[in-house]
């Protein structure tokens, strides 16, 4: 009997120890498909940086029909990668998302047009068809069009908005006069498809004064009341930034890690290696949200005339607590 009791006690102690050592689960919802845009997270997982912080991280790819905000609100993820315009619009509509870290300090968003359409300046968008992604990705464009006083009604004095997927076919097939494109992705798809720099006109959102913050990390506000969740997110941000710095220093190796995680097989080594280098140009040195850049985004979104993306100054839309704790 003594041996049986001892066995039960040792078993209970082993179970308690294993539970104490068990890694905390974190589910990350990406904004888009598996690609080097998210290299830092895949690197952090592959190189064991999450494991070092006692985290078991599941990375969920996004896509043209996946809205990260909806996934987060529905409990399908603990944290999401999203653009600030989408997050602020969601917050104003009642989904209390909060920015906890901002790895990307600069915008990579552009509008690429075929030169043969006669478009030379943004005012020439009038009467044209513009392709954009939806599920929150359209907000920077909508804000820009409002600033240009161009309605999205398909009229001669406005523009026609076309929903596009994650390729550049609408531009190549002349279904759209212009399409939204990232400096690190779709721009190069256009070039690789055979169009030269002389065939296109590129408008950079930063140059046009309508840049907004992209690829931040967001959680639901009520979760921040839980000290254990805050601690878990701080460890997640710390390990993720370590992954980003590793990817920045080792772009080719990081690209191969991304390819290893691409279940679709759609990505190519050449494109991902180039993307990793372009992404590095957008990264900040710290995960802490820059409040001046945040305010510029807010001001841009509020400048929508009769159709602004947000209608009032947000409150409580970001916190430095987690990024400060992480670093």
Strand proportion: 15-25%
Identify low-pLDDT runs. Answer: 15-20
Count of DSSP H/I helices: 13
Largest sheet descriptor? 5 strands, mixed
Outline type: globular
- SSE order: HEHHEHEHEEEHEHEHEEHHHHH
Specify Rg, calculated over alpha carbons: 22 Å
- Give a count of the beta strands, DSSP E runs of length 2 or more: 10
Q: Structural class, please?
A: alpha/beta
Physical arrangement of strands within the biggest beta sheet: 2-1-3-10-4
Q: If you average the pLDDT, what whole number results? A: 92
Provide an overview of this structure.
- Helix content is 40%, strand content 15%.
- The protein has helices spanning 2-21, 39-46, 49-52, 68-73, 84-92, 139-147, 169-172, 186-192, 227-249, 251-260, 269-280, 291-302, 321-326; strands at 24-29, 55-60, 79-82, 97-101, 109-114, 129-132, 160-163, 178-182, 200-204, 216-220.
- Helix 6 (139-147) links the parallel strand 6 (129-132) and strand 7.
- Helix 2 crosses helix 9, helix 2 (39-46) packs across helix 10 (251-260) and helix 10 (251-260) crosses helix 11.
- Mean pLDDT is 92; it is low at 15-20.
- Residues 36-254 form the SsuA/THI5-like domain.
Write the layout of secondary structure elements.
Elements: H1 2-21, E1 24-29, H2 39-46, H3 49-52, E2 55-60, H4 68-73, E3 79-82, H5 84-92, E4 97-101, E5 109-114, E6 129-132, H6 139-147, E7 160-163, H7 169-172, E8 178-182, H8 186-192, E9 200-204, E10 216-220, H9 227-249, H10 251-260, H11 269-280, H12 291-302, H13 321-326
Parallel strand pairs: 1-2, 1-3, 6-7, 6-8
Antiparallel strand pairs: 3-10, 4-10, 5-8, 5-9
């Amino acid at each position: 009997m003594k041996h049986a009791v001892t066995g039960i006690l040792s078993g209970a102690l082993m179970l308690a120890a294993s539970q104490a050592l068990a890694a905390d689960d974190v589910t990350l919802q990406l904004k888009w498909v598996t690609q080097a845009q998210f290299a830092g997270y895949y690197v952090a997982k592959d190189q064991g940086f999450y494991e070092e912080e006692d985290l078991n991280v599941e990375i969920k790819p996004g896509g043209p029909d996946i809205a990260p905000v909806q996934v987060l609100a529905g409990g399908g993820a603990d944290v999401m990668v999203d653009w600030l315009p989408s997050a602020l619009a969601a917050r104003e509509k009642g989904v209390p998302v909060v920015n906890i870290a901002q790895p990307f300090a600069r915008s990579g968003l552009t509008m690429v047009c075929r030169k043969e359409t006669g478009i030379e300046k943004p005012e020439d968008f009038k009467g044209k068809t513009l392709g954009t992604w939806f599920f929150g990705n359209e907000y920077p464009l909508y804000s820009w069009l409002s600033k240009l006083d161009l309605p999205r009604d398909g009229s001669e004095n406005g523009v026609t908005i076309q929903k596009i997927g994650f390729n550049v076919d609408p531009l190549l097939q002349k279904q759209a006069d212009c399409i939204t494109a990232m400096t690190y992705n779709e721009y190069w798809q256009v070039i690789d498809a055979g169009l030269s720099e002389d065939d296109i006109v590129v408008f950079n959102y930063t140059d046009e004064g309508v840049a907004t913050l992209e690829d931040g990390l967001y959680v639901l506000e009520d979760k921040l009341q839980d000290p254990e969740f805050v601690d878990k997110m701080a460890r997640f941000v710390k390990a993720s930034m370590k992954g980003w710095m590793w990817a920045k220093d080792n772009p080719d190796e990081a690209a191969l890690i991304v390819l290893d995680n691409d279940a679709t097989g759609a990505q190519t080594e050449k494109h991902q290696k180039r993307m990793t280098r372009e992404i590095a140009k957008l990264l900040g040195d710290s995960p802490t949200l820059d409040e001046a850049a945040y305010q510029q985004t807010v001001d841009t979104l509020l400048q929508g005339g009769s159709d602004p993306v947000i209608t009032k100054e947000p409150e409580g839309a970001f916190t430095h607590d987690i990024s400060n704790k992480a670093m």
